[in-house]
Predict the structure.
Amino acid sequence: MPRHALDAATLVSWLATEALGAFMARNWIARGGIRAARQRPARPDQMSLPVLAWHAGLNAAGLLCWIVFLAAAAKPAAWLAIVLMAPAIGLGISTVVIWTPYPGPGQHAPASTVLAEPEIKRALHDEALTNQLVDDFLARNLAPPPPRTPGWHLRPLVPASHGVLAIATFSLAVLSAVAAG
């Protein structure tokens, strides 16, 4: 593959990766992700707004460096783009670990009930309340799951494609930077 074709393939791959990332971020924001991320105390399965911002910011800065490399044939800009992309991929992997499975529209994690300390103390001394809490807990956790609709569920392909494209983009960028000399 000629060097310029490799440079262009890297750019196309990078833009496709960014488009999928923007799509996922839009869905996360539309479902109240920013609002939920600002709540305290943060849940361990909750997306971190700073991690997501750094992930997107490093990728955008890398893309800008790549465009400078393409426009001005500035080889250091290509290597800087790669240096920026590496930690961005690491942050992206950390978001996947936290955000699996990829939440889609209308899909929410099951609500967990956390009792305040006074309610726990009261339940320990009130047998009827304890029985009610145990019954509620069992009913919630032993209920059969809702029926699944048959067919393909394509929602997990979005983050998977984003990750595969990110690795492909990184590989293409390294090959292109090496080919540039």
